[in-house]
Amino acid sequence: MAQSLTRRRPVARERPATPLVAQRQRTRWSTAPVLLILGWALLAVLVALGVAQPWLGLAEPGAQHLTERLQPPIGFGGTWEHPFGTDQLGRDLLSRLLAGARVSLGLATLGVTISLVVGSMLGLLAGFRRGVLDHAIMFIVDVQLSIPFLAIALVALTLFGTGLPVLIVLLGLSGWEQYARLARALSLRTSQELYVIAARSLGASTARVLSRHVLPNIVAPLLVLATLQFTSLLLLESSLSFLGLGVQPPTPSWGNMLGDARNYLQLAWWTTVAPGLALLLVTLVVNATGDWLRDVTDPVLRRR
Amino acid sequence: MARYVLSRLLRALATLWFAVTLVFIGLRLSGDPAAALLGPEARPEAVEALRRAWGLDRSIPVQYAVYLTNVLQGDFGQSLREQRAATVVVHERLPATARLALVSVGMALVLGIPAGVLAALRRGTTLDRLLMSVALIGQGLPNFVLGLFLILLFAFHLRWLPSGGQHDLRGLILPAFTLSTYGITSLARFSRSAVLDVINQDYMRTAQAKGLPPSRILLDHLGRNAALTLVTVLGLQLSVAIAGAVVTETVFAWPGMGRLLSQATEQRDFPVVQYGVFLVALSVVTVNLAIDLLYGFIDPRIRLAD
């Protein structure tokens, strides 16, 4: 396959054929920097509160109180009734932020799962079968790499309209090519290993060889990539929702909260700062986690 | 070299062809293409007329051929909102987007490289750590969140700069900076490591002993190797600026193509979206092609290996 130098170089080439077990033993959670552990704690609290939001006794995220519009947060003249203040419809920001966490983080997780599964399977097949199938899959990978996904998403949203199913399909489709490239490169190497050749010569089917012998040996770098991809999906969803094309009101997502807040920047900075900081926190923590995981598991995986 | 150029050119064309074909498939999957093209509020006669004009009563291969011919002739249909050709509507908005994209590339160069070189020359100091932490954070920062925060700080709190939507130079600063964070951070990290790679080499000491000024030494010895990465990062920055324009222009109410595209998507103005996205794909594919060709030009090993 001709490699375009503008994109990632093939990843598996220089990787030493160390058995994965040895690498796993080197992964020590205690080596994580203190700041990162603090970030995980914050993230865990955010997720827990997001899941528990309906039972926290906060105002309904969708409940409008037009008499309490654009109230400031505590410390800036606000009251404990709305700790983070309210938005332009008098909805409680804290409760929307937590409900939005559920939606935004949930959608990103779903998207990562879909693209991880689809991309890895196609990449495995391409690397294992070679031939025409390999060329076809890699051609589509190259096309998707060379066209910004947001552009593809805009066409799809114009044709099929906005809605949750379309959004989920789009999130699942974006980024699959990263896993496909990685899985292909890794399976090319793994399929040359003695244990795979032995299994095949004993008559094991392709499905069995892939699932029992190849996949377990390449799953760690794929999961690291998934961590790094999580933030791209979070950003895709929030960008689309910010533009009014993703998650539709009244369902809150951090993106559409920011989209609403855009019109009230001058009047109520807190409506922007709350979801903005939440996005920032999650992006920084997850990116740092991905980098750290990559460093401890496999120094060859590189970020774009 | 001719073979290298030809193979890159073919790849670029194949990519565009595939993208256009995908849109055709999407059109067919979405139901009646004529209805999709004209939108839900179209008069039945108009739908019928388009159906005949595009040969939608004929077989799929014929339809595909008609579609490709139209696209090749630059006929992307009429905008549904304005009674004008989609191409005209989009072209009006191009200069604003191009200005923003070019300024963002310039900013990446002017801010990114000095920051990286400075960090390398002051390696291990607080300044180095500070610059590199900012670069690391900047790389993961969601573009539109940064844009909104910049507006809050510089436009509404400090009142130094307009919040956007203006054509003068001051109005360009915030949106261009927002778009250029990718380029600034990548260039800063790259130039730092590039300088560190050569700074302790023997020939650097020799050059210093000869009495050459440090700036001259850096330029001479980093020249060719750095050019490769520089070209890549600048090309990618241009792609990022074009694609990122959709969100950034909405944040700053900038009257460019990106804003038009997001509005047209919301209004389901298919011809405008189709042509705008085609242009985005075309420019990104062209930038990639240019990078590949420059690569082959700068480094003979690459064109020979292919």
UniProtKB/TrEMBL annotation, chain A:
Residues 101-290 form the ABC transmembrane type-1 domain. Residues 1-10 have a biased composition (Basic residues). GO terms for biological process: transmembrane transport. The chain crosses the membrane at residues 34-56, 103-128, 149-174, 267-286. It is a multi-pass membrane protein. Signal peptide: none annotated. It is found in: Cell membrane. GO terms for cellular component: plasma membrane. It comes from the Bacteria. Residues 1-23 are annotated as: Disordered. Keywords: Cell membrane, Membrane, Transmembrane, Transmembrane helix, Transport. Belongs to the binding-protein-dependent transport system permease family. PANTHER family: OLIGOPEPTIDE TRANSPORT SYSTEM PERMEASE PROTEIN APPC (PTHR43386), PEPTIDE ABC TRANSPORTER PERMEASE PROTEIN (PTHR43386:SF25). This is ABC transporter permease. It comes from Thermalbibacter longus.
